Amino acid sequence: MGAGDVAVSGASPARASMPDPSVLATWGLPGLFLIAMLAGSVVPVPSEALLAALVYGGTPPVTAIVVATTGNVLGALSLYVLGRWVAIGGGGPLGRWYARRRMKEGPRMQRIEAWTRRWGAPALVMSWLPVVGDAFVIAGGMLGVRPLPFVFFVTLGKGLRYLAVALSAAAAL
């Protein structure tokens, strides 16, 4: 296995599982930033596992939390921009992808949009949630949440999630 290869534990060619956090930990803080940024978009990668592995390996928890949160919020901004673009009539492959996802999610997306419409930017604290967090972020863009409140509440939600992960990893030491 080369230095840039990612080990996949228990993976078969047809169905890969999540990469091994101990291998991802060799990427250090730049790797955490990249993985967290991808996780903040729609790419399902184990940013929490990498953060925990780094903290367990001796990285200061505050540093790891800041790096992971920053990357994850930047990834979320890509979904925010997608939501804004779709709201103003953007099409193309991304617009079609979102339309398919919205139809597939159906009532769940409608509830998330209604929740975001009712509570506004503070609803984006829920962006940390698995599966539906991305929908809150896209809804924030579609509904025209201003960028500064968007960044504040998404950072709060995602930062609290990473804080919980880092504290758990630190407690395991």
UniProtKB/TrEMBL annotation:
Pfam families: VTT_dom (PF09335). Residues 45-167 form the VTT domain. Keywords: Membrane, Transmembrane, Transmembrane helix. InterPro entries: DedA_domain (IPR051311), VTT_dom (IPR032816). The chain crosses the membrane at residues 24-43, 50-71, 77-99, 119-144, 150-172. PANTHER family: ALKALINE PHOSPHATASE LIKE PROTEIN, INNER MEMBRANE PROTEIN YQAA. This is Membrane protein-like protein.
